[in-house]
Amino acid sequence: MRARRLRSGLKGWGGVGAMAVACALAVVFALLLPVVRSPGDPGGTGNGPGGGFGSDSGSGGQGVAHGSQARAAEECTDPEKQTLAPADSDGPAIDAIQGREGEKRKLVVGVDQNSFRWGYRDPNSRGAAQLEGFDIDLVHRIAEDILGDEDAVQFKAIPTDQRIPAIRDGRVDMVVRTMTINCDRLEEVAFSAPYFRTGQQVLAPKSSDITGYDGTLAGKRICTAAGSTALSTLEQDRKDGGLAAGADLSTTVPNQLDCLVRLQLGEVDAVVTDGALAASQAAQDPTVELKGDSFTTEYYGVAMKKDADDLVRRVNRILADWRADETDGWQHSYEEWLSETMDDAAKSRPPAPQYLRKS
Strand, coil or helix: what is 99? Predict the structure, then answer.
């Protein structure tokens, strides 16, 4: 794994002024990283990464080898357990990636570029700021295993609500972007075994009278990311009568960090997102804090096409090795990127995987 770069001063970010600078820099950096667009947008590729992975011939065709996963999605109760056992063997999806030639011989991955310590560009870096963070470490690990070069990666910045369309349209091979495994998503994409445990949590100003996911959210304006688990959870709770009366869910944004900016500008009263992301945002801005405990339990996974069984199995084997590596594995990345922001000891260990039986 690559040598670690020193983290240079982001711990001292704070307040609206610092975040305004950071967000301005994020816009500049966004110009340097390909952005995944909707299929109808100008400049959208829609033809598959590296020339062909998105086609039926390049990925094995729908319904060829993923019967067990399809049945699992239909009968889903524990989504984090609905994945295939690890294996080393190649198949159509891996062959398509390895068969790319020249500069196109790269793993094409959808990531975030502005989630502090998960996938982001350090604005304090000298020269061209490289993507770094916990998710980025995992991407390099996967590229090293499949292509023999940890830097053989084409990163694509991807909005929250474009994660699944980008996979299904073949614009990326996979998404590694703090993506929660859930039953609805299993109907559209396949997931690896979980590599991190988290849960939905409330982020609000320290001065706020909000105390958590409770009655203090009554009448409050809540920001969530479009296409996120947070939004779907809150919408379902509102239908079920579990959301505080009068809570306003009308503010949604393409990327989760935009909610922090809205909060700082006073346009919303609270943010609901994964506790792991909220902890990183609280580390960026000392005027906000997590309120109350997580009110769900969720797991991040690597998302891939439903019929890419060989790729799912290979990623699960890579994750098993990453968890077991005591030198430069999961624990090393956790200590490097997340240990300073996470206050739950249970999150400092990778979740134990469970796999589907062979069909």
Answer: coil
CA distance 114 to 133: 10
Q: How far apart are CA 272 and CA 156, in angstroms?
A: 25
Which region holds residue 246: left if phi is over 0, alpha if psi is between -120 and 50, else beta? left
Instruction: Render pLDDT for 159-184 as a digit per residue (tens, 0 to 9).
Output: 988 999 999 999 999 999 999 999 99
Q: Which two tokens stand for residue 254?
A: 């393409």
Name the maximum alpha-carbon separation found in the chain: 58
pTM: 0.81
Q: What is the pLDDT of residues 14-30, one digit of tens each?
A: 343 444 444 444 444 44
| 266-310 tens-digit pLDDT | 999 999 999 999 999 999 899 999 999 999 999 999 999 999 999
User: To the nearest 10°, the Cα dihedral for 176, 182, 184, 189?
Assistant: 30
Distance CA 26, CA 17 (A): 14
Positive or negative CA dihedral for 28, 34, 35, 38? positive
Q: 208 and 270 in contact (C-beta within 8 Å)?
A: yes
Residue 96: phi and psi, rounded to 5, are -65, -40
